[in-house]
Write a structure and sequence with these properties.
Elements: E1 2-5, E2 11-14, H1 16-30, H2 51-59, H3 67-75, H4 84-99, H5 113-116, H6 125-143, H7 159-168, H8 174-182, H9 186-199, E3 200-201, E4 206-207, H10 216-226, H11 229-245, H12 264-276
Length: about 280
């Protein structure tokens, strides 16, 4: 944890949650000049979205929109290419709810799908920086929570699913991957173990998530990163340090239960063997 003095007798503590809150406010600032649409949103109110909820999304103050509004909005039939000004007006609240642990679609990977459907070039450099900053803050905080329970920031999904969510939003993944490599915490390494064990097919060097089937750039980025000699060497080092640190039971927080059918030591060994190969 980093600390910065703010006065003679006070210290401001910078924690992952503080960074995520700052990133959320930066998103509000970056998208502040967009106004609510004065016409029907890009949804289907005939059968997909409640018409009153759609109206509220245009008339309520942005910060009053709820998980229910965005769940129905995201789950509705929509245009292949999204209206950028509508998306950018709603984006800060969407991200804020994500940071609060809201469930915004039936599948985590699709939470931010509308962002990625805007025309290429729709986002200014400032807006792209705000999205990138939020993505990094969100990912960094989630990596420090293990196991990834349903009430954690990752909502029970593994870290590769979260990276795929950001890939759907067309947010570059390299800064997130670099942060993960640089992390020293046991939690971040254990998140890597579970992501690799469940979501990467080692014998064919392919991402295993069904939502990644058509995400060519995501698969290329992840598969290339996982097979870099430097990446494999770094994870081998961190996994060795993890195993040397102590028994598996010490990695679980008090009262937490590992619900996976394959024991944690077995998962660690499998991922270590793949990285060390």
């Amino acid at each position: 944890m980093k600390k910065k003095k703010t006065g003679a007798n006070s210290v401001l503590e910078y924690t992952p949650s503080n960074v995520l809150e700052a990133a959320t406010q930066a998103a509000y600032k970056a998208f502040a000049h967009y106004q609510a649409p004065d016409h029907l949103l890009d949804v289907c109110t005939a059968c997909c979205m409640n018409a009153e909820l759609e109206r509220e999304m245009r008339h309520l103050p942005l910060r009053q929109l709820t998980q229910r509004h965005f769940y129905e909005y995201n789950d509705s039939a929509k245009s292949q290419v999204q209206p950028a000004r509508e998306i950018k007006y709603l984006a800060p609240r969407l991200l804020e709810l994500l940071a609060e642990g809201a469930r915004l679609h039936h599948s985590t990977e699709l939470y931010l799908d509308r962002l990625g459907r805007c025309e290429p070039g729709s986002f200014s450099a400032t807006e792209q920086a705000a999205l990138q900053g939020f993505a990094l803050a969100y990912f960094a905080q989630g990596l420090e929570q293990w196991p990834a329970a349903s009430d954690s920031l990752f909502q029970g999904d593994n870290a590769f699913s979260i990276l795929l969510m950001w890939a759907y939003a067309r947010v570059p993944l390299e800064p997130l991957l670099q942060h993960w490599l640089e992390c020293e915490s046991d939690a971040s390494t254990l998140n890597f173990v579970d992501a690799c064990y469940w979501d990467y097919v080692w014998y064919s060097n392919q991402m295993g998530n069904a939502f990644a089937t058509d995400e060519v750039e995501y698969k290329r980025t992840m598969e290339e990163w996982l097979n870099r000699p430097a990446t494999k060497a770094r994870w081998t080092e961190k996994l060795m340090r993890l195993v040397d640190a102590g028994p598996a039971s010490s990695w679980l927080p008090a009262g937490a239960v590992d619900h996976h059918c394959y024991p944690l030591p077995e998962r660690i060994t499998a991922v270590f063997d793949a990285m060390a190969a």
